[in-house]
Amino acid sequence: MYSICRLLSNGNPIIVSEPVFKFIGQGYIGPVPFPVILLVSVYVVLSFILRKTVHGQYIYSIGGNEKATILSGVKVDTHKIIVYTTSGLLAGLAAVILTARLSSASPVAGTGYELDAIAAVILGGTSLFGGRGNVFGTLIGVMILGILTSGMNLIDVSPFYQDVAKGLIILVAIIIDRFINNDK
Question: What is the rounded distance in angstroms from the CA atom of residue 174 to the CA atom of residue 181?
Fold first, then answer.
């Protein structure tokens, strides 16, 4: 898909000049940037779903022990489809916000953000081994990663070394998580 996008655009970004669309990434409601309002809205909805709904409890259960969840009669495949669909929807929302923020669409925009997403989630306390984590922790992880990235940019660390640092953060967090989960 990536190659097709580059082929169709001749590798050039497509300029977006629609004011309503640009508002999504650059607009303000009062003193608050519109992307922050979207962030808070998504946070509230996802927190509610994970904490207060049966589906949210099933997500934790599937992550903790999928086989036990199946044996308890939960339609695991249905809940997984909902989770993956929601993930795709939120990735699409992030792409729209990024495109509106940059006022251009590029086939290479957002490349490498997967590592940032994984690092933020792990920094926020979500276990890669399943069953543990929350939206607030992920939000904190995003903020920590943002501060870390900004700090590395300010001291002029090469982007290649920044990726290495993020990879090391993920590795250390996995090792710590493994030791914590082995004790239980």
Answer: 10
Rounded CA-CA distance 41/33 in Å is 13
C-alpha radius of gyration, the chain, whole number: 19
Structure-derived torsion over alpha carbons of residues 130, 135, 137, 138, reported in degrees to the nearest 10 = 80
Longest dimension (CA), the chain: 55
- Band the pLDDT of 27: cuts 50, 70, 90: very high
Q: How far apart, in whole angstroms, are the C-alpha atoms of residue 135 and residue 41?
A: 12
Rounded Cα distance, 12 and 48, in Å:
41
**88-117 residue pLDDT tens:** 999 999 999 999 999 988 877 888 788 888
Of the candidates 72, 60, 67, which has an alpha carbon nearest to the alpha carbon of residue 127?
A: 60
Token pair, residue 137, equals 């922790």
* DSSP-assigned letter for residue 28: E
**146, 124 contact by CB (below 8 A):** no
Q: Quick one: how many helices (H) and strands (E) in the chain?
A: 9, 4
